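User: Okay, second chain of the day. Same drill as before: sequence in, structure tokens out.
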Amino acid sequence: MKTTWIILGGTSTMARAFARKAAERGEGVILAGREMDDLKATATDCGLRGAPHAEAAAFDARDADTFSKLISRAKSLEGSISVAVFVGSMPPQEAIDADPSLIDGVVMDNFTGPARFLTAIAPVLEDQGGGTVVGVGSVAGDRGRLGNYVYGAAKAGFHTYLSGLRNRLGRSGVHVVTVKPGTVDTAMTWGLDKLPFLAQPEKIVSDIFRAVDKKKNVIYTPLIWWPVMTVIRLIPEPIFKKMQI
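Assistant: Same drill. Structure tokens below.
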């Protein structure tokens, strides 16, 4: 059955790489986001790369009114629908400390907006009895760290939500993959210093599709982040709270 991916946050660097890879696999794409000209350009590129269907659609994680039109469009397509969530934002922690009102946007972009959309489209996925949800979180969600604890808290919430959604949708044959990337060479990390194990988006996307094909539940990418975060999670709190990480 032909698959079409709804790609939320379609203007992000990782989302573009994901869309291109999906197109090369012969899968359709709906690139959803706020910058329509950018999305349309990527959709055109995907069509040239082999996507049987490629289009742009309006989506804003902070505006639930954009969700229903996108879901209605998905229902009108032939074949199977899958969803990949690349939505997110990460203001500097010092900016959030200076203006706590920024927390609302961080939580909406990284957790509640995507979760609300996925909950709304879940019945469609259950009715079709198949498909995949890819939720891109972050290693930052594994433990609250000094430099990005608000962003990490939002991603942690999203991880827990995806775990519950996996339990729910798995009963209908829909698979949910939680992706925990480390530092990736994207606009979100440009200009930041001391980024260990910096990965290219294409590497992350390759790992994601491998996880989709093998029906993995949770992946760290690149894999080096699995032992790194295992160690970080095991550090006793009295020691951890004194560390500059």
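The two ends are 46 Å apart (CA to CA).

User: Thanks, on to the next one.
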